[in-house]
Amino acid sequence: MGSIGKNIPRVDAVAKVTGQARYVDDHFVPGLLHAKIFRSSIAHGLVKSLDISQAQAMPGVVAVVTFDDVPGHTFPTAGHPFHKDPAHQDVADRHLLTKRVRLWGDEIAAVIAEDEWVAAKAAALITAEYEEYPPLLTAEAALAPGAKEIHDGTGNVIAADGYEAGNLEAAFAQASVILEDRYSTQMVAHCAMETYSAYAYQDGAGRIVVVSSTQIPHICRRIVAQALGISWGRVRVIKPYIGGGFGGKQDAVVEPLAAFLTTVVHGRPVKLELSREEVFGTSRVRHPMHFKLRTAVESNGRLLARDMECLSINGGYASHGHAVTANAGAKFRQLYNQAAIRAKLTTVYTNLPATGAMRGYGTPQAMFALECHMDDLAYELGLDPVEFRLKNIVAPGYTDPLSGVKAHSNGLRECLLRGRDLIGWEEKRIAAAGQIGSRRRGVGVACFTYASGIHPVGLELAGARLVMNEDGSVQLQVGATEIGQGSDTVFTQMAADIIGLPAAMVHVVSEQDTDISPVDLGAYASRQTYITGMAIRKAAEEIKTKVLDYACLMTDIPARNMDVADGWLIYRHNCEPIMTVADVSLDAHTDLNHAQPFTADVTNQARVNAFSYGCTFVAVDVDLRTGKVDVTEIVNVHDSGTIINPQLAAGQVHGGVSMGLGYALYEQMVFDNTGRLLTDNLLDYKLMTAMDTPDIHASFVDVIEPTGPCGNKSLGEPPACSPAPAIRNAIFHATGVKCNDLPLTPQRLVAKFQSAGLI
Which of 150, 138, 123 is nearest to 41 (CA)? Predict the structure, then answer.
């Protein structure tokens, strides 16, 4: 019996619940020094003078480093594959420490001390005098004539581009209904359990070793080398267990500075760990986006054309820059059919925290605007929102007109039909008709689409190494990072199934080391099970072939007439057992004439992609007087191809939906007019709790993806993309009031209800 489709326990579960799993903070290194950063107390300006004398004089301080001591060149921090074409490389706008301040909490100096307390106290003794500039906290302020450039020569625009397909003017001319509206989303934080943490030291050969909580060890190695201006081979990155990332650790946030600081103290280990407050204000956050949509529709509900503008608010540094905005823009053409579409996309520097990758990579923002707009169109046309979507969704075989990626599978229709039944759509719509009083109920729906990796925009490379032991068990080593999502378990199941072994006979190496782990680009873009899975398939098939070929030497049975199942070699025609894999492997390891241990070390470059689809249905109870929204039911239905491990898949849905609920109702980063963050802790920043969360129903349609290594495609990020618009649409259904700005806080909703005359 194969293990794909089975709920096998997580391979890291015991280690994590017993405390055997070692995170960065669990690594104790003799002579470890600690570093703390002196940060700016303004959002925009220039350091005129810096006094470090008191910090240097404090007992226990080993060194104080300022912007004058670091390399003068800039470097990028985004975790993207390196591109040989300079025009497609990430924006290099960071210094290890800076004199030019671009956000509140910018990194000016660093203290290295014998312990963390001394380092923090000493950093607090540093003083700075600034030449202050007006903080540019909105896109409008940053783009205003005469606005101070945050980075010279940019006009405060990181990038501006767009696309157009079809005859937009002709399509709009045919329209029976044209609807135009605006939608906006807010800045939110990742809030991973583990903060950003890394320590670095120099080994006996003078190489810099960085032990880091990173999603991208191989890319991180390159970024560290670029930051220090050294060859990439002089850096080694080790990733132990990691306590969550959600995209935030797809940036080299602390690793470059930690690597530099060890060189200051002659190679002694130096640890740099951000506090929760630092994480909120100075790491990476999700892009706020403002959308303007204009859509043309026929009277029968068929979409004709869409014109979209997106203004994306970046922070003081580019990080992933325009890539997130571009991905958001792409989602407007990959979900519904339209004869013509145009998009204008702009990403703007501001003096806010640097934005970067966050679960969904621009898609939650795009889906909020698009799916709210779809409900608004359905209302204008007098159509049921589900039927309106069914009329317009792309069908299997859809090919993106710009990227050329083809939808070989598409179960969105089945998702909508199943979700409609599970939520009791018709009954709840009927029950909500003609409501009066201060409490109103409604149901809403929203769809999503997502890719599986980044081809053809960027390189997709993954490696896998399999080594069979004498007893037939195998070691699986990948460069792909387990960050809590359960990928190591899924990789185990895939390798076991392809070789023909019980899952218990596959032992995965959960930590990555760039010196020895196969090259892989990391955990992002919902790529791992799809992209790394391709490498695992190649390696597993190679191992299986070697086992069968050697068994042929032992038995004279042609390899083509045998197969492997559940750890046994069997006849293909009747499944009769021949011998165990352990018997074959032991002989291959020990035979005096034919010894040949079974190994496979492969790399795979993926030149395909696959669209996942799905939808969220919600039921809400709205109190008009208080603006409180209770989500009473929520159903997430996914087409993610073949589900490798249903329990882990459901866990991904539960986590993603919970993030989507917080995004919709509570979470927001609030700043004063100086650019200082006011919600920089988990008391002031409202996260979902168990008490806020309804039962989440996860359902999957079984549509095999032919390009997936095991019929699978993306799952990790999609669950977070559609809950927010579904909730907004449910509130609209319950109250007749549109709220086009996230989050849907009680204050914002009550103001809307008052304006509408409901209270």
Answer: 123
Written as six digits, the tokens of 483 are 């960050």
Vertex 614: Cα angle to 610 and 617 (nearest 5): 170
| DSSP designation for 401 | T
Sheet holding 612-623, edge to edge: 439-450, 612-623, 629-639, 696-700
* Residues 461/81, Cβ–Cβ less than 8 Å: yes
* Inter-CA distances, 272 with 41, 116, 265, 269, 348, Å: 20, 9, 14, 10, 30
Give, in order, the Cα–Cα distances in Å from 593 to each of 92, 550, 553, 559, 583. 57, 12, 11, 20, 16
- Residue count of the chain: 759
Which of 245, 243, 253 has its CA nearest to residue 189?
A: 245
Task: Mention every residue, 6+ apart, whose C-beta is less than 8 A from residue 273.
Answer: 24, 25, 34, 116, 195, 196, 197, 198, 254
Reference 178, options 282, 299, 274; nearest CA is 299
The candidate with the shortest Cα–Cα distance to 540, out of 516, 557, 569, 564, is 564
CATH 3.30.365.10 domain span(s) along the chain? 13-18+461-605, 362-451+611-755
CA distance 475 to 494: 13
Residue bearing tokens 């069914």: 390
Q: If 0-12 CB within 10 Å is exposed, 13-18 middle and 19+ buried, where does residue 590 land?
A: exposed
Closest residue by Cα to residue 191 from 689, 629, 676: 689
Q: What is the pLDDT of residues 435-463, one digit of tens each?
A: 999 999 999 999 999 999 999 999 999 99
The domain 13-18+461-605 having CATH identifier 3.30.365.10: the answer here is yes
Intra-chain end-to-end CA distance of the chain, in Å = 61
> H or E stretch including 325?
helix 322-330
Encode 63-84: b = buried (16+ Cβ within 10 Å), e = exposed: bbbbbeebbeebbbbbbbbbee
CA separation for the pair 184, 354 (Å, rounded): 18
SS3 assignment for 209-268:
EEEECCCCHHHHHHHHHHHHCCCHHHEEEEECCCCCCCCCCCECCCHHHHHHHHHHCCCC
Q: How confident is the model at residue 28 (pLDDT cuts 50, 70, 90)?
A: confident
Calpha distance 283→262 (Å, rounded):
21
What's the chain's Rg over C-alpha atoms? 27
Extract the tokens encoding 374: 């779809």
The fold adopted by the segment(s) 31-133+196-273 is Aldehyde Oxidoreductase; domain 3 (3.90.1170)
- Who contacts 484 (Cβ-Cβ below 8 Å, separation ≥6)? 242, 243, 244, 245
- How far is C-alpha 643 from the geometric centre of its chain's CA atoms? 20
φ/ψ of 662, rounded to 5, equals: -60, -40
Note the Cα 36 to chain centre separation in Å: 28
Q: What CATH class is the domain 362-451+611-755?
A: alpha beta
* Angle formed by the axes of helices 217-228 and 255-264, nearest 10°: 50
Q: Are 449 and 527 in contact (CB under 8 A)?
A: no
In angstroms, rounded to a whole number, what is the distance separating the alpha carbons of residues 24 and 245?
14
- Tokens representing 306? 């869409």
At 606-626, the pLDDT tens digits run 999 999 999 999 999 999 999
Instruction: Tell me which residue has tokens 């999957």.
Output: 700
Give per-residue pLDDT as tens, 196-220. 999 999 999 999 999 999 999 999 9
To the nearest 10°, report the CA torsion of 584, 588, 590, 593. Answer: 120
Indicate whether this model's pTM tops 0.90.
yes
Q: Is the pLDDT of residue 265 over 80?
A: yes
Distance CA 374, CA 385 (A): 8
Residues of the chain with CATH 3.90.1170.50: 31-133+196-273
- Confirm if 331 and 388 have CB atoms less than 8 A apart: no
